[in-house]
Amino acid sequence: MKKNSFLILIAVMALASCKKDLNQIPISAATTSTFYQQPSDFIQGVNATYNALRGYPDRLLNLSEIRSDNIYGVSVAVRDWDPINDFSPSIVSNVYVEEAWSTDFNGIFKANTVLDEIKKNAGFVGSAALATRLQAEARFLRAFYYFDLIRYFGKLPIIDHPVLVSEASAIRRSSVDSVY
Amino acid sequence: MKRKKIIFLLLICCFTLSSHYTRAQNPPASPNAALTVSGVVSDENGKPLPGITVQVKGTSTSTLTGADGAYRIALPKPNSILVFSYVGYQTLEIGVNNRMIINTSMELSTKALSDVVVIGYGSQSKRDVTGAVSSFDARKLEERPLQRIDQALVGQLAGVTVKQTTGIPGKAFSIQVRGTGSISGGNEPLYVIDGFPLSVNSSNTGNGTFTTGNPLDNINPNDIERIEVLKDAAAAAIYGSRASNGVVIITTKRGQSGRTKINFNTYAGYNAASKKLTMLNGDQWIDRATEMINAAYVLKYGSAGATANDDAATRAARIGLAPGQINTAYMLDPRWAMPGHPGLEFEDWQNVIERKGQMQNYEVSASGGTDIVKYFISGNYANQDGFIVGVGYKAYSLRANIEVNASRRLKFGVNVAPTYSITQDPGVEGKDAIFHQSLSMTPVQEDTVGSFPNIGKNATYFWSNSLNGPLGKLTHNIGTTRRYRTLGTVYGEYQIIKGLNFRSSLNLDNTDNITTTYVPYITVGTLAARTFTGSNNLLAATSGTYTSYRRQTFVNENTLTYNTVINDVHSLNILAGYSYNLDRLDRVGISSSGGFTNAAIQTINAAAAVVLSGTNGGTKSVLESYFSRVQYGYKDKYLLSASLRSDGSSRFGINNQYGIFPSASVAWRIIEEKFMNPVHLFSDLKVRASYGVNGNNNLPNDYASIATIGSSGYVLGGTPAAVIGQGPNVLANPSLQWEKSQTFDIGLDFGIWSNRLSGSFDFYNKLNTKLLLNVQVPEVTGFQTYLTNVGSVRNIGQELELSSRNLVGRFQWNTTVNISHNTNKIVSLAPGQTQIIIPNGLETTDQILRVGQPLNSIYVVRQIGFMTQDDINKHVAVYGTGETVGDPKYQDLNGDGVITEADKQIVGHPNPDFTYGVTNSLHFMGFDLSVLIQGQFGGSIYSDLGRALTRTGQGFTDNAPESYTQRWRSPTDQGAGRFSKAYSTFGFVANTDWLYSSDYIRVRDITLGYDLKGAIRTNAIQAARIYLTLENFFGHDKYYNGLNPEAANTTISSNSSYPEAGDYGGLPLAKSFVIGINITL
Fold first, then answer.
1. Three-class SS of residue B220?
2. In a domain, B693, yes or no
3. Could B881 and A77 be called an inter-chain contact, meaning their C-beta atoms sit closer than 8 Å?
4. Cβ contacts (< 8 Å) between A109 and chain B: which residues?
């Protein structure tokens, strides 16, 4: 009957499913597989590495200068810089200390990512001169972040490529000399 | 033609369930033979019933019984069926059977609805249900001044906890079914409206509000006929991957065949704040400020001979100021000591901003139908002015539910509901929002500015805090949210062969929401900034934003159902289906930069420049599912149900896109057994047990498994210019998958003394595993957390629902009670991890996730009294330096002699242990009274509002609650024990002085009504009722220094992976008083 064949058609259409629909690509965000295809992408990747420098001036104030006589904290044990100012022994979970470690390592991660991508997709960078320049910038920033970290924390794990979660806990802290 | 009609009628008769049905006989030879039937209709006590509709089934011939209950109707043919119907009574169908006089009696339909329960993809008779399902009859909701369905569910069903998180009218509450089981994923249930599963949406910014909408937005509660909540895994498993937090099935009103019923309901009244937090009044504030200023002055200049009795001139000289200059930190206002405080005005800021807001609501609906078409059409206008100046909610909604029986085999229908709502909220709840500021606002102000300090051309009082007056902000700031939502469903059902039905539906939910805000410069900053000096641009301080989202959900569902009864004893129901869900969310957010160019225009086009703000862009996710279910019953005594569902979602990693969700449940109707026959105590007895696996795919992010690139810009160059930077902003996890929840449930349904007392009891054990958790990872990876499936939480609880008809007869009294008990416990976190301290954006952490403890346990230092001189001499552990006599003494948990973060301990948990609701309804002679009392106990709230109002080390300018008058004043006057001395310098650590019990009890609803039908004797009106309703008028809670113990309006956690929403300035709930009239024509 007409009605039956119509129904079968609907069923088939429904079942001719949209399995590929389950692999959605983000509409408004790039991913590591779609990015790093244009010269501007690599430039932006290095610009992102600079981004971790944003906290640098405040960090100098909050972790370094506050302990000197150049700065006088008027608050009394109410704000986060006070335990640092007071040389308190329990600053391990202090917000500024945390921020230094995580921001600098985030910068190191971004530098490693760009260096990795330049190596992998060398053909898309555009010109060899640009590739050299970007690599140099990334390497400098990575060293700068390590320099910032080593003065606050001492021994550090040396990371020179983007690491997976599983590898990360296996990397030990290297001595101060080897980091330098 | 006529023959077909007769055959058609005969077929209809065959499917009638009426016990009064008699088989039709051959039609008479003459089609013109007219017969008249007459009789009297009375109620179960023999009293005649006027106004009953008597209709010849299948035709439009009908009449009404007169005042004496008598009727007379002409039949087109002798063997018709008469249908007797009336609002509130069970409809009767009586075959004429060649009789000329038919008298009958009608019964009240007290249980008419409870016989059939809506379960997923179908309905089932309540006696056959094998899972844990709670039902709620929503037909009386039009008499309660409620704007939303979640408000209606408060205190009604066991196991369903509605957290009333906000006092803004029309704003969503948070609902939890059987406790919280998820840490990073959402905890809201799945809502299904007329078979359309809406996209699950949780409070995705962790601040307690639903910034991209809540599934119940705009839906008119008066359109709802019933609500079922599928609580255990077996009932909910048919919805598989989204059902681990329970499923709420909403059924809207349908038309019935019979005479058209037109219903008109309207009410009007007012709403006001149900609770006020008494703050220090002018005199008490002056007393506290004097104490604190004198203490500071003496502390600083005491060595130079300063005393508290120094007058202003002496103090100025000692500080080194010119005579006449003032330093408010060390000097008093001389007017405080003068009688009548000349020049100063005392303000009670809550009274200034609160008012009695008007409420009104108009609802019109029409329903009816024939055997071919049934319809329900409704329209509603609601207007509620909030109890805060400048806050309000207006809603317009329409609905049309139409169903057509096109032929014997084919049925189709359409449900369409366009709605539009407007909310006015200039930014009232939350941290640093207007209500919080009105609590902190200094109660002493210059009388020249009165209630508008620091607004426009008014200056700030020197000793006051520098906030801009809240009333000024409420009157001049604008925050408008316009939300347009359309829900539409088109469905068709086709009967392929007897018992085999195919149903297909297309559903679309489209929400368009636009929020605009505007803050003019007159309510911002200081007087100096608002003063024109000749060259400055005042409008640079004006700001505005425009944010909008569009959410579209498209669902196509196709099911095949087969129903049969074999050999009269085996009943079988098989379901198989396929469904496709598509969800899309597009967002735009822009805000002004550099102020506005024009003071007359408030829309964003007048901004000097605009920048992107908030989230912009679109996201999309797809869900594809196959499901099936088998229900089997043997002699209606032994029941078995099993279901299986497979869901594939685009949200999850490539490796784990599909999940399988099975369930099984059994039930034994003990009452049907022969050995129960002599036992007359029980009228109903059923035992059931179930086990099933459900899933939770509710992530705030549709693309969580992919390594997306985010922006991290910077400024480079000799002439600094911003550059775009892009780098990976998340660690990818291609194995990301569903959260699984396994629930085991046993239940008992019983009825005693002919169902005079009936109820059900359930015990459940729910284990959520593979929780979507942002696990902390070593930061050398570049990130702090990484989303993966690890961790588990267990919820164990009991629920009891009881319903009893205490008194029947002329005076009726019914009671329903629901009580739920729930405990939750973290079973495991990441391997090797025993706890996660939730990072806090407000300086010190106060919640923890610890294995073996409830979720989000409150983790703070415990205060154990006050320091005495003796304690100081003995060097009792202190926090920081500077603690003196009268400061709080904290418990040194680890005994190391210092108070640090390590001394924090678990002092409570936010989810209550018990929630309950009790409804009593009484009927007497046309009057009826219904009272709903609900409450909870066993939970605690850690009030972040204390950070603004009651922190140690707080200055004197901010106001404090009146309980501050009970603070420690001297070693001989220790006060009430919670607050330490006014002036302290040692800083602040999160401690128990902000901890309150979140227990409360509220008389949520009192409705008193009178049935006017006895007074109005006309056939035009089928029913008429006037009523008076009080909501939230009486109640008590233990949140002494806050307003709403369930409030959630601010993000406390600084990490969105562990959302923690707290109260930092939430409004109290509204109490309302309305009078209304409800007429059915």
1. coil
2. no
3. yes
4. 728, 781-783
pTM, 2 dp: 0.83
Map tokens 């919670």 to a residue.
B978
| Residue in B with minimal Cα distance to A112 | B782
List strand residue ranges (DSSP E) for B770-913, in order.
772-776, 785-789, 792-807, 811-828, 835-837, 847-850, 857-860, 863-866, 888-890, 905-908
- What integer pLDDT is reported at residue B761 of this predicted model? 95
CA–CA min distance A144, chain B (Å)? 15
Distance CA B774, CA B185 (A): 10
- Of the three residues B62, B86, B106, the one that is the final residue of a domain is B106
Q: What is the 3-state secondary structure (H, E, C) of B43-79?
A: ECCCCECCCCEEEECCCCCEEECCCCCEEEEEECCCC
Element (H, E) at A110: helix A95-120
Q: Which of B699, B712, B733, B984 to mutate to probe the A interface, most A CBs <10 Å?
A: B712
**Whether the predicted interface score ipTM is above 0.90:** no
Report the candidate in B53, B503, B36 with the shortest Cα–Cα distance to residue B256: B53
| Residue B955 falls inside a structural domain | no
A10-19, B336-345, B362-371, B600-609: segment of lowest average pLDDT: A10-19
Compute the distance between CA of residue B172 and CA of residue B151 in angstroms, rounded to an integer.
Answer: 8
Domain contains B64: yes
> How far is CA B735 from each of CA B651, B731, B741, B829, rounded to the nearest angstrom?
11, 12, 18, 18
CATH architecture of A35-179: Alpha Horseshoe (1.25)
User: CB B727 to CB A49 under 8 A?
Assistant: yes
Q: How does residue B30 score in pLDDT terms, banded at 50, 70 and 90?
A: very low
Least confident window among B435-444, B543-552, B977-986: B977-986
Minimum Cα–Cα distance from A46: chain B residue? B725
Domain ranges of chain A: 35-179
Cβ A29–B556 below 8 Å, yes or no? no
Across the strands, what pairs with B108? Answer: B89
Chain A residues in contact with B844 by the CB 8 A cut-off are none
Q: For residue B940, what are the β-bridge partners?
A: B997
Q: Which of B276, B308, B340 is the last residue of a domain?
A: B340
Beta bridge partners of B1041: none
Task: Give every CB contact of residue B792 below 8 A, 6+ residues apart in sequence.
Answer: B767, B768, B769, B770, B771, B826, B827, B828
pLDDT tens readout for residues B483-499? 999 999 999 999 999 88
Closest CA to B56 of B368, B371, B367: B371
Residue B428 lies in a domain: no
Q: Tell me the two tokens of residue A168.
A: 């990360």
Q: Give the integer Cα–Cα distance in Å for B466 and B445.
A: 11
CA-to-CA distance for A8 and B584, rounded, in angstroms? 29
Q: Calculate how close chain A gets to B985, using CA atoms only, in Å.
A: 6
Partner-chain contact B725 A10, CB within 8 Å: no
- Three-state DSSP state, A54: helix
Whether pLDDT at B709 is above 90: no
B1022-1059 tens-digit pLDDT: 888 999 999 999 999 999 888 999 998 888 887 777 88
Task: Give the residue numbers spanning the domain of B300.
Answer: 287-340
Mutant choice from B723, B781, B784, B892 vs A, greatest count of A C-beta within 10 A: B781
Mean pLDDT of chain B: 87
Q: Give the Cβ contact number of residue B822 at 10 Å.
A: 24
| A7 compared with B960, residue with greater pLDDT | B960
Measure the CA–CA gap between A136 and A42, rounded to whole angstroms.
13
Taking the C-alpha atoms of residue B986 and residue B954, their distance in angstroms, rounded to an integer, is 11
Could you tell me which residues are beta bridge partners of residue B213?
none
Question: Residue with structure tokens 């103090």?
Answer: B315
How many domains does chain B contain in total? 2
- Average pLDDT over every residue of B165-172: 91
